[in-house]
Design brief:
single chain, mainly beta, 2 domains
Length: 125
């Protein structure tokens, strides 16, 4: 008789929507909440999950925060929760946080520094 078992890592993305102004890049973005965990499988069926950790990644610059465990559990249950800055601990700065931005004089849109024209109204920056 063969017993096939193993351990692996998993990731679950939650359907959570909260708009925010990013503290790192200053852009308007959304929180993407996900959970990572370790799982023990028997015959490719997950049986035990442990080491659950909840994270938030911003949609604007990609900064990753570790989320308070209790808030993460509430989001996993589908409850309506507001994530506050006190619930977050920065783990990794986003890859776009040091990009320089220019502001359009006509419409106020911010764009990357290497743009010659505004992506919103087309005016020269």
């Amino acid at each position: 008789m063969f017993l096939i078992m193993g351990m692996s890592s998993g990731r679950k993305v939650f359907n959570f929507n909260q708009l925010t102004t990013c503290a790192v890049c200053g852009q308007y973005g959304r929180y993407n909440v996900f959970m990572t965990y370790k799982v023990f499988t028997i015959f490719f069926i997950p049986t035990i999950k442990w080491n659950k950790r909840y994270y938030v990644q911003t949609s604007c610059c990609g900064t990753i925060y570790e989320l308070d465990r209790e808030i993460g559990k509430m989001i996993a249950k589908g409850e309506t929760v507001e994530i506050l800055p006190s619930n977050l601990r920065m783990m990794q700065r986003g890859r776009y946080y040091n990009t320089a931005y220019k502001r359009c004089r006509q419409c106020g849109c911010e764009s990357a520094a290497d743009y010659a024209f505004c992506p919103r109204c087309g005016a020269r920056i």
